[in-house]
Design brief:
single chain; 125 residues; mainly alpha; Chorismate Mutase Domain, subunit A; 68% helix; elongated; binds prephenic acid
């Protein structure tokens, strides 16, 4: 059985090794352990989101619907900006992040549509 790439991960890898006091390094590594857990969660969350959007992509292609839904995006962005404000996260960052994800989703939708229908949709993208 092959080893999962994540097993090669060295949580202590750092360009700072040997350059900072041991106790500072220990504190940094403790903080990084939380960061590593959060990053792993983000990967799983994003994988789940893309699983859901892949189903949307197939539904849209099947019914010849355009890959993008700008009206939905306006509502999503306004909501995420509000949530970000409540969470003390920069709303501009939340918007940029969502737009980044959505543009990738739209690319996937277009690819699904091209594979299934040769790219034609009733209303264009
Ligand atoms: O909900 C949809 O219609 C989707 O295709 C999903 C999604 C998203 O990633 O949230 C992607 C593209 C659309 O423009 C709007 C939303």
């Amino acid at each position: 059985m092959s080893t999962a790439p994540a097993d090669d991960f060295d949580p202590t890898a750092s360009s700072l090794s040997g350059k900072v006091a041991d106790e500072v390094m220990a504190e940094l590594l403790a903080m990084r352990s939380s960061i590593d857990n959060i990053d792993a969660t983000l990967v799983y969350l994003l994988a789940e989101r893309f699983k859901a959007t892949q189903r949307v992509g197939h539904l849209k292609a099947e019914h010849h619907l355009p890959p993008a839904d700008p009206g939905r995006e306006v509502a999503q962005i306004a909501r995420l900006r509000r949530l970000a404000e409540d969470a003390n996260l920069d709303p501009a960052f939340a918007e940029k992040f969502l737009n980044f994800i959505i543009s990738e989703v739209i690319r996937h939708h277009q690819a699904i549509s091209e594979t299934r229908n040769g790219g034609s949709s009733a209303e264009g993208a």
